[in-house]
Every structure is written in structure tokens, then in C-alpha cells.
Amino acid sequence: MTTIDPAVSSGLHGRVIALRYAPALFAVTMFTSALLLFAVQPMFTKMVLPVLGGAPSVWSVAMVFFQTALLAGYAYAHFLARTLAPAKAAYVHLGFLALAVVSLPIGVAAGYSTPPSSGIEFWLVALFTASIGLPFTALAASAPLLQSWFAVSGHEQSKNPYVLYAASNLGSFAALLLYPFLFEPAFTLHMQAALWTFGFAMLTLLVGAAALTVTQVKAAPSATAERGAELSWNERLNWIALAAIPSGLVIAVTAHITTDVAAAPFLWVIPLALYLLTFVILFRDPPLISPFVAATIAPFIVAFLSISILLGDKTYWLTSIGLNLFGFMVLALHCHGQLYARRPAPARLTEFYLLISVGGVIGGVFAGLVAPNIFNNTWEYPVLIVASVLVLPGAFAKGLQGFLRASWPMLTLAGAIAVSVFLFDVRLPSGSDMFFQLALAGLTGLMIWKRNQPAQLFGFVVLAFAVTGFWQPGLKRIETSRSFFGVHKIVESEDRTHRLLFHGTTIHGAEKVRNADGSPVAGKPEAITYYYEGGPYSDVFAAAREVHGRLNHVAVVGLGAGSLACYRREGENWSFFEIDPEVVRIARDPKLFRFHTECAPETPIVLGDARLTLVASKQQYDVIALDAFSSDAIPVHLLTREAFAGYLQRLAKNGIIIAHISNRHMELSQVVGAVAASHGLVGYVKLDRTPQSILVSFKANAHLAVLARSEADLGSLPQREGWKKIEPGDVAVWTDDYSNILGAIWNKKFAK
Questions:
Q1: Last residue of some domain: 361, 390, 419?
Q2: First vs last Cα of the chain: how many Å apart?
Q3: Which residues contact 206 (CB under 8 A, 6 or more apart)?
Q4: pLDDT of 160 above 70
């Protein structure tokens, strides 16, 4: 009679149970792994914002890290699956997960408190790697490893392990929806990190249970499963290209829609959630949406995007965001549908995911790192839309020569438009708006007409981008430049009397440069836009001088075109604090704007994040003006309780803090009121309601909040017209550990 070791018997019994429930076990484990993987992305990126500021590029670079770490995890999984038996691979991976547990809880790594003045993108990648590289890579490897284990588990449903990828992406999708709408408003970052650590420990146990199903498989999958037909490198390159386009698009679309709202998780996660949802829809038999449907709709979407995304009209911003998100999802469905149709045999599963990840990194690096350094505008978005046309069915049915033969007339015309603008400065004449709109309508019609002929559609799409990018009527573009913190456009009004500085689509300052007769404006420039004489800013500085007489020291956070410099009076010591070196260059160039050189030529400009540089200045200021809020993409980290604690260290006795909170999308006066109350400050707010037209009078309605230690420090401001005491209401105080952007948007749009 043979005696069975109790430990062996227990192990066999555990394997039988695990195998019986394998589909559910693997689905739950992959769901949990993906939930953790994609919850950490917005959570940790939000942790980084107080270190670096609220630029949309922070998320773009973060996405590059996430995609690169995903590639590292997939490469590790592919290596284990190719070289080790599943049982041994399971022990190795469980050891890797245990090592990652030791590195928790997550937080910003030591030594990364101050960003450098240049090379911020690579510094940020290093920060992410040092802080969360280990647990993120371990999580990334779990999905392909679990699928490869399921493929050789012997379960009757193991012939198509790709369906588990839908469960994985469903977990990712759930994380990205739950984070901004549940976890961010309800929990501090400290509590979020604690919950995430608990979830990671639970995942390690689930992976251990899943590993029981393959404890008896003694050979690597390459020896136990059919590898299918040999793959050509052309097919592998197709996988990479089809993955690269939507991966780049998710970064480009996110940057496009967040430029004028906020660097906030709820906006970051929407494009990424849609990206993952396409995998849920398609990686199953049958798919929830046929790839044929996406391929049919894609040309219509491309046509409308190609005539709209470079125009920069934010009048209907919500409609614009919706169109871009819908268009992105259709293009991602089209690419990912082709990927699933081209999937290899299960034995090549880890190679398939590895090459998809390679494509993801290529697309992410292009959109997040390369494009900002080679383009002076956000051209990566149009480039990726054009690339999506190249993968439409039948695009190269007649070969490369046939493709070029069909598209060359439109490409030649697009090139001629670019040459006419850059070499000869040919512009559409004044009053040509109707002609321009008719031309766009005509191009749209031609693109829809040629929707089933991808080569000709490609040519028309390139032509549409050339027309909208180079031949917009009205404003004459003087210069366009780009930095880590955004795109800066300097343009002149249609009558050439005013010069304007745009950050994204938001005006950051304007100056009258010519009189109506064409003669140059002499003397000191007049502050206009938000800063015009008679507006809220003039009220504040007049009241401050009532209290102090001459202002000894003034700190201005945010430079823009330099308009506020012209509020300086002789004998006053002003300092500007600006995070973007490109803005400093523009404001200091008298050929572009004269505010700084004419009104405050000796005034220092301190480069860096004001959260750090202002506190480090050691000076006491009578006025601290927070003017970094004139763009609708607010830097949240400048509105927290910790930020105001730093400002108060630098605020002189009887001093005041001005917060410029003009915003189309968010109600910020209650946010400022809450943080003021937390520091025992008194505050007043004014929303300028004077009828204005920015492109006619070049004046804009500012929304200002002014805070002081006592009401006496505000002088006559409380009695001036339009100023009201700030009531914080029931808004929770924003901190470096907690903020609620979604609530601020809700209060702006719906609260009475």
C-alpha cells in the first residue's frame, strides 16, 4: 500500500480546487491586479504635483513612465514564460511581489523635492522609477503571466486565454472611474496609499492561489503548447504600429483637453479609461462592437477632427471635449480591433503582449517626450490622426507607389500652403472668415466622399490640417514656442493694433502696440485685459497703498506678458516668480512685449515653482499677488493650506494676498475662502461684471480674492463697489493631501 505524504496530498487537493474554479480565480486575480495598477497612476501623479506644479505635461511624462514600466513587466513575464516551467515561474514571481511589498507604502522618493531648471521630463521619469518602479513593474507582469499559466493549466476553457485580458482591462477601467469620483473626493492621499498597500498584499495571496493550478506543469509553455505558424517580422511590426497609434493618441488627447481646465485626475483618467474600455469591448468572442463598425465610422471622425482641433475655439468647450474623446475611442477601437484579429496562438501570448507594449512605449515616447522637444505646437495630435488613416483597410492595397500617386495632389497643395506662410508670409486677407468656413466645409465634404479610398482621404486630411494650422483668418501669428509647461502663441489682432499672448487657448496678456493710424505707441504701455485701470486690480492696489503708503516689497507669482509690472510705482521693490523659462524670455523681449522693460526694468524675475522660491526668498512682502490663475488650467498646488502657510511666512505685517481666480470651469472663491478660514484670515472677493469684449476693448473681467490677517489691513476695499466677504460654505479645505476639482466644477456649473 502506497502512502501519500499529507503535504503532497494537501497540495494536490488545493490544485484540484484551484483548477475547478480557475476561470473565476484568474479573472478575479487579473481584475485586482489591473485595479491596483491603474489606481496608482492618478494617485501617485497627484502626489507629485506639489513638487512640480500643475502642468498638463506632468501627466504626459507620467504616462511615458507607466508605459515603459509596463514594457519592463511584460519583458520580464515573457522571459519567465519562455525559460521556466510555470511552477518555477510562479515561485519567482511570488518572490518579486513579496519584494515589492517591502517597498510599500508608496510615496515620493527621498532626494526629489526640488526639480531642476532643465531636463524636467527625464528628472520626472527618474522620480517615478525610484518611487514606484518596483511595485508597478511587478503588477504589470502579472497579467501576461497569469494568462500564460491559464493557457497551460489544462482547464477546458484554456484554449483562448486572451478573453482574460478583458477582465484585466475591466479592472483597469473600474479603477480609473472609481478614483476621481469616489477615492479622490472621499480619501486623503495618505489613506489612499494605505488602502492600495492592503490591496497589493491581497493580490499576492490571489496570485499564489492561481499558481496552484500549474504546480504540476514541469515544462515551459513553449514545450507544452502549439506555437502556431511562424510569424513574419512584418506581422510583428503591424502589432507594434497598431498599438503605438492609440497609445500616442491617449497622451495627445489628454494634453489637448486638459490645457484649459486643470491638471487633475478626473480629466487624466477619462481618455485612459476609454483606451482600456476598447480592450474590454474587443478582446472577447464575439466582440461587443464589431471592428468593422469602428473602421466605418473612423473616416467621418477623422474628417471632423482635422478641421477642428487646431482652431482653438473654446466657446463650446464641453462639445469639443466630447468630440475629441469620442473620436479617440473610435480610432482606438479600430486599431485594437485589428490587433485582436491578428492575435497569435496562445503559446506566443507573452510575445504578443510584449510587442504591444513596445508599440505603447513608442507611441508614448513620441507624444510625451519627443514631440514637445521637436514641435513648437501640439502637432503630435494631428500627426497621430494622420497616422490612423494609414491603418485603414486597403490603405496600401496598390502598394506605396499607388498610395503616393493617389494622395500627391493634396500633399503638394498642403506643402505649398506651408511654404507660402513660412517663406512669404502669405495670409488670408481681412474679412475672409466666410471664405475660410466654406473652404473647411468643402474639405469636410471631400473627406467624407473619399472615406472608402484611404490614400486620397490621407491627402485631404493633411491638407485640412495645413489650412487650419497655417491659414486661420483674423489673428496674425508672430511667434509660437513650446516648453514643458505649455504652448505659447504671440499673435496680433486683425487690425494690427494689439499684440496678444496665448497659453493654449487662454489669453495671458495683451498690449497696444500701434495706434489706429499705424503709428507705434510711445511711452509706457497701458495694462489691459484683466489688469485694466478701473478694474478689480486697480481697486486692490489703491486700497493697499491707503494702508502702507508706498509699497516696500511686492511679490507677483506668474509673469505672463508682464502686465502687472505697470502697477509698480517709483521706489517700490517688486519681484516676479515664474516657473516657465519660456515665459520669462517672452516678457523680457521688448520686441514682443514692453511691460517689463518699460515699467519695471530692474525688477528681478525668480525662476522656479513659487511654492519653493517664494518661501526661500527671506523677504517680507506687503502684497503677494498669486497671478498664476489667469489660465483655466489652474495649478492646484498653489491653492492648498500648505501653500498658503508658506505665503504667510513671507507676508509682512498688514500685508495682503491677492488670488486671481478667473476661471471658466471652476468656482474657486469658496476654495480660497475655506483655506483662508483655516488660517484665520479675512477675505473679500469681486467678480468684475462690466460688459467687456476681449477682442474689441481688449479688457477682460477678472475674478479676484483678497486675503488679510484683519479687515483693517484691507483699507477701503470692503467698501468699494462689487467687493463681497468670502463665505467658504461647506467646501472642504484643499491640502497637498486632498483636493476636489470635480466639486469645484460642479459648483461653477450647477450650484446656486
A1: 390
A2: 83
A3: 25, 28, 29, 32
A4: no
- 67 and 133 share one domain: yes
Q: What is the pLDDT of residues 382-416, one digit of tens each?
A: 999 999 999 888 888 888 888 999 899 999 999 99
Q: Please give the residue that has the higher pLDDT: either 576 or 487.
A: 576
**What local confidence, expressed as pLDDT, does residue 624 receive?**
97
Query: Both 423 and 313 in a single domain?
Result: no
Q: What are the distances in angstroms from CA 563 to CA 2, 78, 148?
A: 92, 57, 61
pTM: 0.76
Residue 494 vs residue 406, higher pLDDT: 406
Euclidean distance between CA atoms 609 and 624, whole angstroms:
15
pLDDT digits (tens, 9 = 90+) for 41-65: 888 888 887 666 555 567 778 888 8
Q: What are phi and psi of 204, to 5 degrees?
A: -60, -40
CATH code at position 686:
3.40.50.150
Do 315 and 451 lie in a common domain?
no
Residue 245 φ then ψ, to 5°: -65, -55
Q: Is 515 inside a domain boundary?
A: no
- Strand (E) or helix (H) holding 303: helix 291-306
Which triple of cell numbers denotes residue 175?
479603477
Assess whether 465 and 571 both reside in one domain: no
Both 384 and 403 in one domain: the answer is: no
Query: Cα(213)–Cα(307) distance, rounded to whole angstroms?
Result: 54
Same domain, 288 and 430: no
Q: What is the DSSP string of 73-134?
A: HHHHHHHHHHHS-HHHHHHHHHHHHHHHHHTPSP-PPTT-SS--SS-HHHHHHHHHHHHHHH
Least confident of 66-70, 194-198, 218-222, 315-319: 218-222
Tell whether 559 is covered by a domain: yes
What whole-number distance in Å separates Cα of residue 199 and Cα of residue 139? 12
pLDDT at 388: 92
Structural domain span for residue 438: 399-474
C-beta of residue 372 within 8 angstroms of C-beta of residue 482? yes
Query: Is residue 436 included in any domain, yes or no?
Result: yes
- Residue 356 domain-assigned (yes or no): yes
Number of domains into which the chain is organized:
3
